[in-house]
DNA sequence: ATTATATTTGCAACAAAGTTGCATTTAAAA
DNA sequence: TTTTAAATGCAACTTTGTTGCAAATATAAT
């Protein structure tokens, strides 16, 4: 499905910024930061435009945000696009790569009595296979 | 164990700010934000001092940071103080309370081949028992 | 108890990220 | 082609993260 289709299906205007973000994320198999996405876009877009585009796309669940920590945010395609709604994410401490662990479920622990569950977010931190095979010095 | 002991045990100077943070977190059974802690401290401390105190205490694992999302950060006592090193956290979407689920483990999913695990962070979002019994309107 | 020393604090300053209002531009509907 | 509702870019401002430095202070040494 093209960015064009995705946007019209969600009744969003098909703007270059939105299409660019979606296409960038379709191409990348991993999650990307705002800067990473920005640098891959053909045209330049204002910071505000990016900000609002991410917000809109996230609300429509076309993309989803991965908060590794308060200073490391990445985006990936959302569950409006065949992604499993809830899945863990992997963060590589060496190369800072973030990847959706799509095929895996999140095991939700038993909550205290009377607590209601609604969502879970699980981030696994470690070293990815690329970095592991590259034994560069710390 | 008193804040006094904790600090000296870690070879940190026993300052009012650090003691205040630790005592506040000992009293509270839940995780607290910087603002929440600040408002409970007897004296006023500069933003920078708070910032550096949190940083130092976190490095010594006297406290630990809970990143609910990039705009919601809370602190709780750390594993240098008998807390289990890795545990899930619960976030109440109504009252914004954050609580350590201390007695529970995090189930780490199987990673892609060649990936190395080092840490996991799991946040459960939902409604706490207090908010659930209080059926106030959205 | 007093002095010396290494840390910590508060302030100023700046960087980065989040957010909003508004006039201009533009995509899509008529 | 015209109309109109939505998106963009810019400016402005808020909040949060971060550093350097001089003054203050906790601890070690005397």
Describe the fold and architecture.
Two copies of one chain form a homodimer. Chain A is an alpha+beta fold and 138 residues long. Chain A has a single domain (3-133), classed as Winged helix-like DNA-binding domain superfamily/Winged helix DNA-binding domain (Arc Repressor Mutant, subunit A), CATH 1.10.10.10. Chain A is 32% helix and 23% strand. The first copy, chain A, has five helices and five strands. Chain A has a three-stranded mixed β-sheet. Chains A and B meet through β5 and α5 of A and β5 and α5 of B. The first copy, chain A, binds a DNA duplex (30 and 30 nucleotides) through residues 12-15, 17-18, 34, 45-49, 51-53, 56, 70-71, 73.
Short note summarizing the structure:
Two copies of one chain form a homodimer. Chain A has one domain: Winged helix-like DNA-binding domain superfamily/Winged helix DNA-binding domain (Arc Repressor Mutant, subunit A).
Q: Which range does the strand content of chain A fall in?
A: 15-25%
Strand arrangement within the widest β-sheet of chain A reads 4-3-5
Q: Tell me about the biggest sheet of chain A?
A: 3 strands, mixed
Percentage of residues in helical conformation of chain A: 25-40%
Number-wise, the strands of chain A total: 5
Q: pLDDT average of chain A, as an integer? A: 95
Provide the descriptors you would attach to this structure in a database record.
138 residues, Arc Repressor Mutant, subunit A, DNA-binding, three-stranded mixed β-sheet, 32% helix, two-stranded antiparallel sheet, homodimer, 5 helices
